[in-house]
Write a structure and sequence with these properties.
The chain is of the alpha+beta class. The protein is built from eight helices and eight strands, in the order ββαααββαααβαβαββ. An eight-stranded mixed sheet has the order 1-2-3-4-5-6-8-7, with helices on both faces. The radius of gyration is 16 Å and the shape is globular.
């Protein structure tokens, strides 16, 4: 799929349009990032600011042009019939994670997931979030969004992309394996009442 134009119609579904993220998408992107994180962002961010949920804090980071989570680093699928986002991918050079640490978070939260933060393929292009809404799944949207991330990485001079996926998220693991990703290692994460994953997080890589 070419990504030169601002808007691209999906050949499989003419109602889906692909375009770069915009600041006005921040609310929906925040919800999709939480969907992709499958509890991670809620664990790290809920009530960090009293009364503010994870999506509220993410919304601020996404609306900014400076953070890795910025809308500028997002590519979205839009359902033209409803105007809603059907899916989102957020990706950027992995080394940007070194520049934007999580020192502002309480130590008990970051300590619990430190293994994920430390297990990275530095020097790769990192897919931080990839999610498609339930109403739009099995239409090839996730594949198209991942293809965009791979094209963007290649154009930027990267030879591989990496990502983390919960080991107990079998459908996501199967999708990434089918897409050509291979496991590099596993970050062991102890089960927690607010983070109910039991098999850790797998770092995966795709050569491009």
């Amino acid at each position: 799929m070419s990504i030169k134009s601002d808007k691209i119609h999906d050949e499989q579904d003419r109602h889906i349009v692909y375009r770069p993220g915009e600041v006005g998408d921040s609310n929906e992107i925040a919800s999709y990032m939480c969907l992709a994180g499958d509890g991670l962002y809620e664990f790290l961010l809920n009530d960090l600011v009293p009364g503010l949920a994870a999506t509220g804090i993410l919304r601020w980071a996404i609306a900014s042009s400076e953070t890795p989570l910025s809308y500028r680093n997002c590519f979205v699928a839009v359902d033209e019939n409803t105007g809603q986002l059907a899916g989102v991918v957020n990706s950027f050079p992995a080394d940007r994670l070194k520049q934007h640490g999580l020192d502002f978070l309480p130590g008990d939260r970051t300590h619990h997931v430190r293994a994920i933060l430390n297990l990275q393929d530095w020097g790769s292009w990192f897919v931080n979030s990839l999610a498609v809404g339930e109403n739009w799944r099995r239409k090839g949207i996730a594949t198209n969004l991942m293809d965009h991330a791979a094209s963007q990485a290649s154009e930027a001079g990267f030879d591989r992309i990496s990502l983390h996926v919960w080991a107990d998220n079998l459908s996501a693991c199967a999708f990434y394996k089918k897409s050509g990703f291979a496991a590099m290692g596993t970050a062991d994460i102890t089960a927690h009442p607010r983070l109910p994953h039991t098999k850790g997080s797998i770092l995966m890589r795709l050569e491009i």
